[in-house]
Amino acid sequence: MILNNQQIIETCQRGDILISPFNEDQAQAATYDFRIGKQGATTSTKRIVNIEEIGYFVLEPGDFGVVTIFEEIRMGNQYSGRIGLRSKYARKGLIATTGPQIDPGFHGRLIVGLTNLTPKRISLPYKDHLLSVEFHRLEHATNKPYAGPYQDKLELGAEEIESIVETEGMALSEVIKTLQSLSSNVASLTIEVKWMKWIIPIVITIGIAVIGVIVGLK
């Protein structure tokens, strides 16, 4: 069963699902909105940035990054969540590369992978609504709750940073910058060649005229 907004609120009030901090205004018709958290890192920065301090998280063209979600969540063993990127960011060309589900028994903050597939930078303001999560109530509680590597994880760790910093070869963002630079150089060279097409005949004409004058003087 998919929970509607009132059921989401009631489930959180009972403590079957815990979202901290919880805000009823973030409960939509049949989803709950999760916001951009305090930490992020991208292939272009190659380090953890403090989104709260800066005020926003930037993904350059072609950038891949990871961000923490602001809310901490604890799922009861009879509930799961389906994760989706909010449409306003999907329409901008952003792709969320996180797992599709929050498993029963999960506790922690979601860590979301994001890819900017556009030729323009995308800015994500701190605490802006990023994900929509659809909650499902299982017919029976699971006897195998989540116990994976992200259990109790509340911030970015070494493995997330290493996956960005130690990426072999050029990141897509670096490829785009290189291609843009190459395009600029080619455009500049094209302009120079066009000028040369005009200048060379003029120089030749002037040269011939000067030779003619010299010959005439003789």
Concise synopsis of the structure shown:
This protein has 218 residues and is an alpha+beta fold. The chain is 33% helix and 29% strand.
Which descriptors would you attach to this protein?
single chain, 218 residues, alpha+beta, 8-stranded antiparallel beta sheet, 3-stranded antiparallel beta sheet, 13 strands, elongated
Write the layout of secondary structure elements.
Elements: H1 5-14, E1 17-20, E2 32-42, E3 49-50, H2 51-54, E4 56-59, E5 64-69, E6 72-75, E7 79-85, H3 87-90, E8 94-96, E9 101-102, E10 107-108, E11 111-116, E12 122-125, E13 129-137, H4 158-165, H5 172-217
Antiparallel strand pairs: 1-6, 2-3, 2-5, 2-13, 4-12, 5-11, 6-10, 7-9, 7-13, 8-11
Q: What does this molecule look like?
A:
With 218 residues, this protein is α+β, with helices and mostly antiparallel strands. The protein has two domains: 5-165, Deoxyuridine 5'-Triphosphate Nucleotidohydrolase, Chain A (Distorted Sandwich); 170-218. It has five helices and 13 strands. It has helices at residues 5-14, 51-54, 87-90, 158-165, 172-217; strands at residues 17-20, 32-42, 49-50, 56-59, 64-69, 72-75, 79-85, 94-96, 101-102, 107-108, 111-116, 122-125, 129-137. The strands form three sheets. Strands 2, 3, 5, 7, 8, 9, 11 and 13 form an eight-stranded antiparallel β-sheet that branches. It has a three-stranded antiparallel β-sheet with strand order 1-6-10. The mean pLDDT is 85.
Instruction: Supply the number of structural domains.
Output: 2
- Largest β-sheet summary: 8 strands, antiparallel
Total strands: the figure is: 13
CATH architecture group name of the largest domain: Distorted Sandwich
Mean model confidence by pLDDT: 85
| Helical run tally | 5
Query: CATH class of the largest domain, anyone?
Result: Mainly Beta
* Multimeric organization: single chain
Q: Helix/strand-derived class?
A: alpha+beta
Residue runs with pLDDT of under 50 for 5 or more positions: none
Radius of gyration: 28 Å
